Amino acid sequence: MKEKVAVLGAGSWGSILASVLDENGHDVWLWSNSQAQVDELNNQHTNERYIPNYKYSETLHATVDLKEAVDGAKAVLFVVPTKVIRLVAKQLVEVLSELKQKPLIIHASKGLELGSHKRISEVIAEEIPSDLRREIVVLSGPSHAEEVAKKDITLITSACENLEAAKEVQKLFMNNYLRIYTNTDVIGVETGAAFKNVVAIGAGALHGLGYGDDAKAALMTRGLAEISRLGVAFGADPLTFIGLSGVGDLIVTCTSVHSRNWRAGDQLGQGKKLDEVIEDMGMVIEGINTCKAAYELAQQKGIEMPITEAIYHVLYENKDIKEEINLLMRREGKAELG
Ligand SMILES: NC(=O)C1=CN([C@@H]2O[C@H](COP(=O)(O)OP(=O)(O)OC[C@H]3O[C@@H](n4cnc5c(N)ncnc54)[C@H](O)[C@@H]3O)[C@@H](O)[C@H]2O)C=CC1
Ligand SMILES: O=C(CO)COP(=O)(O)O
């Protein structure tokens, strides 16, 4: 059934998810805060800064008017950077109160709120009262906009404690190149999504420094141990971390040249300064903020996260990466499990 869907955030992932929904036959309204970007999307059907050489369908609508995007929408998808989720949710509340609508809320962002350390669905639930929305569903997994744009094969997870809502989102997005699995462990899916970006910065740094495949496999494996430890402390089901939104996303983000987190780490490993890396990327590198949140949480909860700590020292205390690696290697011997 054709449904109106509003997509909030017209960067690489938001615009490509909007394209998928359009191709699946829905009436899609992509909201951006940039008039120039909206004009480019509506007139040239391109979004060159984010997805170069890609043609969007002429049936996809872009607008800077949030009310126009949301009016009559059965679902609203957030795909803005984590740091503006609360701000955009507040803007949405104003519009929903005026329109007297109760859409399904979906989000596809990956991170934790700085300061509060809250998960994205918690921030959204805090801002949008339940009389203005239905369930909040999380869409997450190993997926790069550049590959979905090419209709390469991608498998991701739709997570909600309410399985029916997760299934609804599964149905909205599934097609012959995008396959969706449902999961009811929202905490596991959101924490896996957030923390894998931190490990990916480390994997990029190893590459930039010229380390080999053994080092990368070690980082990913011990990184997953840290992700699971912290995620379980949040209340996640440990099994979720061996699924698409856990190890699946960790693998793709630690190995893909499309990953902004991996590329940021790679450039840091090659000696570039963090400020320059951020400036040159021009797109969100979620792992930088998430590293701070994870580091603070680990300290607060007394959880051992040596890799996250090492990455924190490099990003926030200007420590030398090679020295941090040496310190990690010289830690006392440990048991692998536990
Ligand atoms: N790029 C990808 O392949 C994937 C990205 N994600 C996640 O999706 C989220 C968004 O990432 P991308 O689309 O890649 O980021 P991006 O950096 O490509 O684009 C972000 C977009 O958000 C917009 N934006 C920023 N602040 C805004 C505000 N206050 N109001 C309205 N729009 C605002 C920007 O103008 C930009 O268009 C991130 O949390 C990321 O981790 C998840 C899976 C895949
Ligand atoms: O989440 C992603 C892949 O699943 C995107 O990763 P990056 O933000 O590092 O590009």
Describe the structure.
The protein is α/β, with parallel strands linked by helices and 338 residues long. The protein folds into two domains: 4-184, Rossmann fold; 187-329, Orthogonal Bundle (N-(1-d-carboxylethyl)-l-norvaline Dehydrogenase, domain 2). It is 53% helix and 11% strand. Strands 3-2-1-4-5-6-7-8 form an eight-stranded mixed sheet, sandwiched between helices. The protein has helices spanning 12-23, 35-44, 66-70, 85-99, 120-127, 145-149, 163-173, 186-209, 213-234, 244-255, 260-269, 274-281, 286-301, 306-317, 321-329, and strands at residues 4-8, 27-31, 61-63, 75-78, 104-107, 136-140, 154-159, 178-183. The mean pLDDT is 97. It is found in: Cytoplasm. It catalyses: sn-glycerol 3-phosphate + NADP(+) = dihydroxyacetone phosphate + NADPH + H(+); sn-glycerol 3-phosphate + NAD(+) = dihydroxyacetone phosphate + NADH + H(+). It comes from Ligilactobacillus hayakitensis DSM 18933 = JCM 14209. Sn-glycerol 3-phosphate binds at residues 110, 141, 143, 196, 249, 259-261.
Helix and strand topology:
Blueprint: E1 4-8, H1 12-23, E2 27-31, H2 35-44, E3 61-63, H3 66-70, E4 75-78, H4 85-99, E5 104-107, H5 120-127, E6 136-140, H6 145-149, E7 154-159, H7 163-173, E8 178-183, H8 186-209, H9 213-234, H10 244-255, H11 260-269, H12 274-281, H13 286-301, H14 306-317, H15 321-329
Parallel strand pairs: 1-2, 1-4, 2-3, 4-5, 5-6, 7-8
Antiparallel strand pairs: 6-7
Helix pairs in contact: 4-5, 8-9, 8-10, 8-11, 8-13, 9-10, 11-12, 13-14, 14-15
